[in-house]
Write a structure and sequence with these properties.
By secondary structure, this protein is α/β, with parallel strands linked by helices. It contains 9 helices and 21 strands. The strands form 6 sheets. It has a 7-stranded mixed beta sheet with strand order 5-4-3-2-1-6-17. Strands 10-9-8-14 form a 4-stranded parallel beta sheet. Helix 1 packs parallel to helix 7. The chain is globular and about 70 Å long. Keywords: FAD, Flavoprotein, Oxidoreductase.
């Protein structure tokens, strides 16, 4: 009887887990011995790093043909419960039926969701760019602004959170607003960040470039201020300050999928499961990857971030190692010592850094061209061709990825 590897999720980590597992199975000639199954709500890769953009077309490429080429079985459903002791998961199908699926090895690649603290009005009135549906709701809302009476609040966007996503979102907003309200419209975009510096997790390296670019675009910073409440007319900060705005966008952080809480093991402050170098959770038959894995990226004390840059290689490693486990082959420890960032700063502008200290190597139009290649080519799925899958899903290959 064939063995079963089950993968939960079709994000960057889930997709590459499936392809890496299929790659090793193919190379070992074990297609009949091991089945690979993926469960997720849709057979799509949602290109989450691009959801701050105005044009949302092409953000959910289909994985149907790719999975067929790789010999990966897909089930449309949502996993409700992981029964680790029974090697099974309970899931709900797209038509609402409750099902149980048994596995030999499980790869948890269920990703992360936007952190939403219990702030009054946050869920009711704030938009986000966390998921494709969220970004589409924001885009639809922005289009309605032109039908509202002109006012400063109508023309104001408040971005809550000055991290990676907040910066990229805010940098796009002046142009997006003027495209809707008119090129001569007096628009106002503000970033409200509780830390005293913009991009607190990005460090000092790119900060000067970021601040100058935001100033050039008319984006204002409200640093050292925490959001206390959100309502239909704007926000109130913890110190009682009021900002009137018809558009509030929440970008403040992410947390690992709640499915990670159903697996026994140590977790970090983001809810990610601590894993071995092979990405196994303890000695179990469960592997965690992508945004649910707290994984050492190198031997210098750096850990993988909740980003597609790390999720892609985490996925390759998890898929390979789960298949190697089934076939009795040695694991390839995950490591990703090369770290770079490429942060979009609006049209024709970006900043590219290298190393965990984020030393600026490029900025302006040249960096924007690099970012465009990342966003439109490099992070997209490979062709539905086994030869390309074998090349690109190899976890031992560590090409420099400029993002």
């Amino acid at each position: 009887m064939s063995k079963q590897i089950l993968i939960i999720g079709t994000g960057f980590a889930g997709m590459w887990s499936a392809l890496a597992a299929a790659r090793l199975r193919h190379l070992e000639g074990q297609q009949a011995a091991v089945e690979i199954t993926v469960i997720s709500p849709q057979p799509e890769l949602h290109v989450r790093p691009r959801l701050y953009e105005a044009d949302l077309s092409g953000m959910n490429p289909s994985l149907v043909a790719l999975f067929e080429a790789a010999g990966v079985h897909y089930i449309a459903g949502t996993v409700q419960q992981i029964h680790a002791q029974d090697h099974a998961v309970h899931y709900r199908t797209a038509d609402g039926k409750e099902q149980l699926f048994s596995y030999d090895k499980l790869i948890l690649a269920s990703g992360s969701t936007l952190f939403r603290p219990a702030l009054p009005g946050l869920n009711e009135y704030a938009y986000s760019v966390d998921q494709l549906g969220d970004a589409q709701q924001l885009a639809a809302h922005l289009q309605t602004l032109a039908q509202r009476p002109a006012s400063r609040a109508r023309n104001t966007v408040v971005v809550c959170g000055g991290g990676f996503t907040g910066i990229e979102t805010a940098a796009e907003m002046p142009a997006r607003l003027r495209a809707i309200l008119g090129e001569d419209a007096a628009v106002e975009v503000l970033i409200v960040e509780r830390a005293t510096e913009i991009g607190p997790d990005l460090g000092a390296g790119p900060r000067e470039v970021i601040e100058q670019s935001l100033r050039n675009k008319g984006v204002s910073l409200r640093l050292g201020q925490a959001v206390a409440t959100v309502d239909a007319q704007g926000i109130t900060t913890a110190d009682g300050s009021r900002i009137e705005a018809h558009t509030v966008i929440w970008t403040a952080g992410a947390r690992a999928s709640t499915l990670a809480t159903q697996i026994s093991g140590e977790r970090d402050s983001f809810g990610r499961l601590h894993v071995t170098p092979a990405l196994r959770v303890g000695t179990s038959d469960i592997y965690a990857t992508g945004d649910v894995a707290h994984a050492a990226a190198d031997d210098q004390g750096n850990y993988a971030l909740m980003s597609c840059q790390h999720a892609m290689n985490l996925g390759r490693s998890a898929g390979h190692n789960a298949m190697a486990d089934v076939l009795g082959l040695p694991a390839i420890p995950y490591d990703q010592p090369v770290y770079v960032t490429c942060l979009s700063l609006g049209s024709d502008d970006a900043v590219y850094t290298e190393g965990w200290q984020r030393t600026v190597k490029m900025s302006g139009p040249a960096a924007a061209e690099l970012k465009a290649n990342i966003n439109t080519v490099w992070i997209y799925p490979p062709q539905a061709d086994m030869a390309e899958i074998i090349t690109r899903a190899d976890p031992a290959s560590r090409p420099v990825q400029y993002f």
